[in-house]
């Protein structure tokens, strides 16, 4: 999917009425936006596969699939779900707008179209969308493990570091990882007990740091979204030394050094820099470590360190 650069952003207008298309296109072009046009939902969805708009103005009543179904399909696709959608509708259709919000639309514009209102709403929602993308990008590129869940323990969103934390925790527990769906069983059980103990104010409450297993801890932080809970996942910084790992696990000193840094979350490249050796040499030592410990993955090796430590 191609990203399009523009001074103010790219707006896709989806409407089968020529007069509305002309008015909106002229208004947005004069305001510095790049304008894309589609006359029905199917062509809009197809067009977005090639050019990704920053925001979509979507008519409710159209031939073929209507605006509701178009919005539903866009929100079901991870590649297009983040794009803000604003419905355009006549006054007689306002009762259907609740359905539109349920499909994932952010706002609506009442026809007949008033250019100043359209520009104001677009500016507000584009600003919010860009701020959200900046925040998500910051989380994605930093080692910040956070996961938001609903009261059932279903995952609403999570950072890449949280996905890795949950996968490692699941492997330690000997259960299949479901990091993109629901919490692992042990974590789910703890979370449900915490909910019951917190009572009605759970959505505003915060927990102390809780140690789930050696090396894995978390706490619950207040979440701004109603009926959602933010879990901040932590890896405990165990104070292993190469000497203790060498003696407990019957490794060479260099193998113990490498395992210590792996247990602290370092990559082969980072370990190579720390120990002034190449990542390939680190990987070779890692193969010997796996063989001696009787494991086949880094997570399993770390789990053994945690259990023995």
From TrEMBL:
Domain HTH luxR-type: 244-309
One GO molecular-function entry: transcription cis-regulatory region binding
A GO BP annotation: regulation of DNA-templated transcription
CDD domains: LuxR_C_like, REC_PA4781-like
Gene3D superfamilies assigned: 3.40.50.2300, Winged helix-like DNA-binding domain superfamily/Winged helix DNA-binding domain
Alphabetical UniProt keywords: DNA-binding, Phosphoprotein, Transcription, Transcription regulation, Two-component regulatory system
4-aspartylphosphate PTM sites in chain numbering: 59
Single GO cellular component term: protein-DNA complex
Start and end residues of each Response regulatory domain: 10-126
Domain of life: Bacteria
PANTHER family: REGULATOR OF RPOS (PTHR48111), TWO-COMPONENT RESPONSE REGULATOR ORR33 (PTHR48111:SF1)
Name by which UniProt lists this protein: LuxR family transcriptional regulator
